[in-house]
Design brief:
Elements: H1 2-7, E1 25-27, E2 33-35, H2 36-45, E3 65-66, H3 68-93, E4 114-116, E5 121-123, H4 125-133, H5 135-138, E6 142-143, E7 163-165, E8 170-172, H6 174-178, E9 186-188, H7 189-297, H8 302-311, H9 334-362, E10 379-381, E11 387-390, E12 410-411, E13 420-426, E14 433-439, E15 456-462, E16 466-469, E17 475-477, E18 485-491, E19 496-501, E20 506-511, E21 520-525, E22 538-541
Antiparallel strand pairs: 1-2, 1-3, 4-5, 4-6, 7-8, 7-9, 10-11, 11-22, 12-21, 13-18, 13-22, 14-15, 14-21, 15-16, 16-17, 18-19, 19-20
Helix pairs in contact: 7-9
Length: about 550
């Protein structure tokens, strides 16, 4: 059976109706074979019944019987076809992406080792042998195996694309350089390949650097979010602590207020009860005397009335109640005292909270030194760059673009364009001064207008006790006492500049909603020395930022 099936062709196992390998083959009286379903369907449509091949007619529809021999042969043929398809698929799967089959192999094709740019053929190890041994073939150019070798030929001249025209940025053949690309900048393909490869490597390195920067930026953003969450937790904890203390204080004050008022009312009621009891006792005694008097007054016996009146009890002593009053207790000041106590508690809690906040911003402390190249010519700086004061004598200094020529100002050497920073300045014994930050591009020559709109975020003391925040418009500040040391805090991304009284741990003023787009410099102005009255220096102080 197997030997016979190998000699038969696919056509011998095809149904002439469906043109596919037999399924349930049956033989009709004329000897032709069909699928059982196909011939049944054919006879259902066509009458009288006849053979689709020879057109022989049958008076009655023949009985269909399965042809077991043809059925076995068809099944065997179908199985053989499936095995061939599976084998072919297996051979094809041997080639991984990037591998090229040998163009010379017949049957099972082996993996190519080289491709010849002259023959335009890819060779396996066996078929590559002539190119490695025969003198004529050894001159052919071999490359790592590639597909579609025809694409390496010039479509116009049918020559190998072995040059590169840099003028037109395209691969060309030798004939192209003589005809279509004459006088163009043409280099060997390998040279351009090496250049392009180096360029791609540089591009790849740049891409990897960009990826790395973005990964670092992601890490930075995640870290910022984490820090933000920590700040938020701290703020919530601080707020909850303050409001819990405030709530407890309110409840205590309320309870004390109620207790005080009720105690006063209790004393008033006790006093009233004493008066009422005393009055009721007098009434009782008076009623007894009234009864005796009434009985005697109704007597008809003259002698008895006169004799008995002598022995009538004297009237009991009574109190003069005319001036006796029970006045409601006064609660004047009770609520006020409770509120004052509550205000004091809230003030203490706020002070604690501000101390915590100040310690927190002090964690952003930076080392700041004065830049002599920016200082006005009448300013005197110490060698360490930590102190500045105004002198009457004008120094002969170069008028560079960084120096202030009218404003009595000096900047720090350090600038900041991101993140947070904080520094402290001692302003003790000064009657005028100005502190803050400014943007790099502000006007440094001639008259200067100090405001956020002009690039200044500043507070200013004038006339010993007049404090101003030079906002738009300026804001007069009401401070309980003048600060001896001022802390300046900047959050670049948040757009915040805040000033703090370091010793009192109190907030002086905050500029919020600022939009920073360039470098910020800390700036200092000791103002004029006013004949020695304001000669004390501004001193950049070290920050104690320990928790």
């Amino acid at each position: 059976m197997s030997a016979a099936s190998c000699q038969l062709t696919e056509d011998q196992f095809l149904c002439s109706i469906c043109l596919d390998v037999f399924t349930d083959p049956v033989t009709i009286p004329c000897g032709h074979n069909f699928c059982k379903a196909c011939i049944t369907q054919h006879w259902n449509v066509n009458f009288p019944s006849h053979c689709p091949n020879c057109n022989k007619r049958f008076s009655t529809r023949p009985e269909l019987k399965v042809n077991t021999f043809i059925s076995e042969m068809a099944a065997q043929f179908r199985q053989s076809a499936q095995q061939k398809a599976s084998s072919s698929s297996s051979e094809q799967q041997e080639f991984k992406p990037g591998q090229v089959p040998c163009d010379v192999c017949t049957g099972t094709r082996l993996k190519a080792l080289k491709s010849c740019l002259v023959c335009l053929v890819s060779y396996c190890e066996t078929h590559l042998e002539p190119h490695l041994t025969r003198p004529g073939l050894k001159r052919h150019q071999l490359i790592d195996p590639v597909e579609n070798l025809e694409d390496r030929m010039c479509t116009k001249h049918d020559k190998l694309l072995e040059l590169f025209c840099k003028t037109d940025q395209m691969c060309v053949c030798a004939l192209c350089t003589v005809l279509d690309h004459k006088n163009h900048d043409v280099v060997p393909l390998k040279e351009e390949y090496e250049r392009k490869k180096a360029e791609l490597k540089k591009t790849d390195d740049e891409i990897h650097q960009m990826i790395q920067k973005r990964r670092l930026k992601i890490q930075e953003i995640k870290q910022s979010v984490e820090f933000s969450a920590q700040d938020a937790d701290r703020e919530i904890a601080g707020g909850v602590q303050v409001f819990t203390a405030l709530k407890e204080s309110v409840e205590r004050s309320q309870a004390e207020l109620i207790r005080t008022i009720k105690e006063k009312q209790r004393k008033t009621e006790k006093q009233a009860e004493g008066f009422i009891k005393e009055l009721e006792q007098e009434i009782c005694e008076l009623k007894k005397r009234s009864t005796e008097v009434a009985q005697l007054s109704h007597s008809k016996d003259h002698l008895h009335l006169l004799q008995s009146s002598r022995t009538l009890k004297a009237a009991p002593p009574t109190k003069n109640w005319t001036g006796v009053r029970v006045s409601p207790p006064s609660h004047e000041g009770t609520v006020r005292r409770a509120l004052n106590q509550l205000e004091e508690t809230l003030s203490n809690q706020m002070k604690k909270l501000l101390e915590v906040k100040l310690k927190r911003v002090q964690q952003s402390a930076v080392d700041v030194t004065l830049d002599p190249d920016t200082a006005h010519s009448k300013l005197i700086l110490t060698n360490d760059g930590k102190q500045v004061k105004h002198g009457d004598a004008k120094k002969n200094l170069p008028n560079n673009s960084k120096r202030f020529d009218t404003g009595v100002i000096v900047l720090a050497k350090q600038s900041f364009s991101s993140g947070r920073f904080y520094f402290e300045v001692q302003v003790k014994r000064k009657t005028e001064w100005a502190l803050g930050v400014l943007r790099e591009s502000i006007n440094r020559k001639g008259d200067i207008t100090v405001s956020p709109q002009k690039g200044f975020w500043t507070i200013w003391l004038r006339n010993e006790n007049q404090y101003y925040a030079l906002d738009d418009p300026p804001v007069r500040l009401s401070l309980r006492s003048g600060p001896q040391k001022v802390g300046v805090f900047v959050d670049y991304e948040e757009g915040l500049v805040s000033f703090h009284d370091v010793d009192a741990a109190a907030l002086i003023y905050s500029f919020t909603g600022c939009c920073f787009t360039e470098k910020l410099y800390p700036f200092f102005s000791p103002c004029l020395n006013a004949g020695g009255k304001n000669s004390a220096p501004l001193i950049i102080s070290p920050v104690d930022h320990t928790e």
